[in-house]
């Protein structure tokens, strides 16, 4: 099995807590521990959105975090993917009619991958990052030229 060209580069992820209870955040950290060790696949948390390929958001968007979330999204280079982890970020969950909630994440910025759960297990976090990676591949058009070139070589 040959991996596509996009796997030559590491996938850098920026995590933003938009108002989470910290349950999903702990599971994200668990995905980085030696048991799951996502860094061996090149998936790495970065400290600035300017270096990130994927924006990982947890929690419902509060009125206080709405503008910072929009600013972080604008700071990321294109192509970029947005991954929302947990029920609160996807629907608002138990906070959906709270006075201080601006809404779920997709009402503030465009979202590419939704991973539901309360709290999402590390396997779900890894699955979501892989789906975000695939979404980035489609945006970049990766693999189409390489595959056709390889197919042409095989046919010859």
TrEMBL record:
Residues 21-131 form the NADH:ubiquinone oxidoreductase-like 20kDa subunit domain. It comes from Methanonatronarchaeum thermophilum. GO terms for molecular function: 4 iron, 4 sulfur cluster binding; metal ion binding. The keyword Transport does not apply. Pfam families: Oxidored_q6. This is NiFe-hydrogenase III small subunit. Keywords: 4Fe-4S, Iron, Iron-sulfur, Metal-binding. Gene3D superfamilies: 3.40.50.12280. Transmembrane segments: none annotated. PANTHER family: FORMATE HYDROGENLYASE SUBUNIT 7-RELATED, HYDROGENASE-4 COMPONENT I. It comes from the Archaea.
């Amino acid at each position: 099995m040959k991996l596509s060209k996009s796997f030559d580069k590491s996938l850098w992820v920026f995590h933003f807590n938009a108002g989470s209870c910290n349950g999903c955040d702990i599971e994200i950290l668990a995905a980085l521990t030696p048991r799951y060790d996502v860094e061996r696949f090149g998936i790495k948390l970065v400290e600035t959105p300017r270096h990130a390929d994927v924006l990982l958001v947890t929690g419902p968007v509060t009125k206080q975090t709405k503008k910072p979330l929009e600013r972080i999204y604008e700071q990321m280079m294109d192509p970029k993917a947005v991954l929302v982890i947990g029920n609160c970020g996807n629907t608002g969950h138990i906070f959906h009619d709270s006075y201080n909630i601006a809404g779920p994440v997709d009402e503030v910025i465009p979202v590419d991958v939704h991973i539901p759960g309360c709290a999402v297990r590390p396997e779900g976090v890894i699955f979501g990052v892989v789906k975000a990676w695939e979404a980035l591949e489609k945006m970049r058009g990766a693999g189409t030229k390489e595959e056709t070139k390889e197919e042409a070589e095989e046919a010859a």
